[in-house]
Amino acid sequence: MRRFEDTYRHKGLRKKLVDLLKEKGITDEHVLDAILQLPRHYFLDSAFDEKAYEDKAFPIAVGQTISQPYTVAYQSQLLEIRPFDKVLEIGTGSAYQACVLAEMGAQVYTIERQKALFDHNKQFSYLKKYPNIKFFYGDGFEGLPTYAPFDKVIITAAAPFIPEKLIAQLKTGGKMVIPLGEGAVQRMLRLTKLADGGYSEEIFDKFSFVPMLGGREGL
Ligand code: SAH
After folding, report:
1. What pTM was computed for the model?
2. Structure confidence at residue 1 as a pLDDT band (50, 70, 90)
3. Active-site annotation, residues
4. Is 137 contained in some domain?
5. I want to staple 40 with a disulfide (CB 3.0 to 4.6 A). Which of 52, 197, 209, 219 is the partner?
6. Looking at residue 134, which CATH number applies to its domain?
């Protein structure tokens, strides 16, 4: 089994990464603190040890990626996380984003459609530190009706449309952060659920995610 070590060098690189995120406009201290705490190099292949603290996305298993730290920080900030918020994440991937939210005190429910990534996370011992994350293997388009309603929903793959079932699983006043678009580039939106069941929309910057796909893979 891989042994994890978080050295002073890693901590120093992390501090620099947090300074860079501040320069890029991230202001939520809770987000910055979570990134400062979390050893991102544990979430990558050991070959990427120091590269883990560059502000870049990296490949993980089955053609998927761990999101760029700036993207993780940006989405986390838009979610306006309060301690004990119940958050649904679509696209567990490396579980790094889920840990950032858990570190901020959220109760995280995260869904992954790739069996290989779900199984990897079951073996990933560091995640035991976060009993406030629940992992599910399934299709994020369906959400988790049995655990609804949620305070927040975060989609970490490029959504081709706004999934109505996920809107239905939000509390009134709840927020969804979603990169929307079918091409190479998506637009980040924040939706707020209204009392009549509809939602209002705020438009943010452009990002580039791997696609949100229907169904499960790997059975
Ligand atoms: N949040 C992740 C980002 C991973 S990339 C991290 O912090 O590393 C996006 C992930 O979404 C991929 O792992 C992909 O398999 C997954 N995904 C794509 N469509 C999905 C769907 N419909 N349901 C659940 N997961 C999905």
Report:
1. 0.97
2. low
3. 67
4. yes
5. 52
6. 3.40.50.150
